[in-house]
Amino acid sequence: xxxxxxxxxxxxxxxxxxxxxxxxxxxxxxxxxxxxxxxxxxxxxxxxxxxxxxxxxxxxxxxxxxxxxxxxxxxxxxxxxxxxxxxxxxxxxxxxxxxxxxxxxxxxxxxxxxxxxxxxxxxxxxxxxxxxxxxxxxxxxxxxxxxxxxxxxxxxxxxxxxxxxxxxxxxxxxxxxxxxxxxxxxxxxxxxxxxxx
Length: 197
Known about the structure:
Elements: H1 8-18, H2 53-65, H3 81-93, H4 104-114, E1 122-126, H5 131-139, E2 143-147, H6 159-163, E3 168-172, H7 183-188
């Protein structure tokens, strides 16, 4: 505390605060605090713009069949909606495998497990992300390595090279809130071509 004379008001404040009696409360004048205004929430959440009559009918079809899981319902005719979704997705993506899961969290964990990532491995992921991006790495026994973000809230170029080492087995590139990461510079920065992104 600086030396010098104390003003009566500061002494009163210090005394009343130190003995916890009559602690002064500052109440700003009503016109000093601007009213709080919140912006309107967006009408549609992420992905909601893609939901239309066709999607509604498909959900109702599943409910009418009482087929809430791939493992029960009718005798497989028609095939469960999950199987239909997987087949259509394989065709659309041009891949041999697809697995419908319960959530994006489960999808990340299944993908890491399918890549054989586990204890002793490291996976690079942005520090600013959804929690499932970290927990999926931890749940397979690997260690998340936190990367910096760029102005688009995606992994910053150069982070893959900076953070990679012999234990690095994958990079989870998060396209945060629908903003796509610039993949070309990121894929060009892989220190080892076999590093999975």
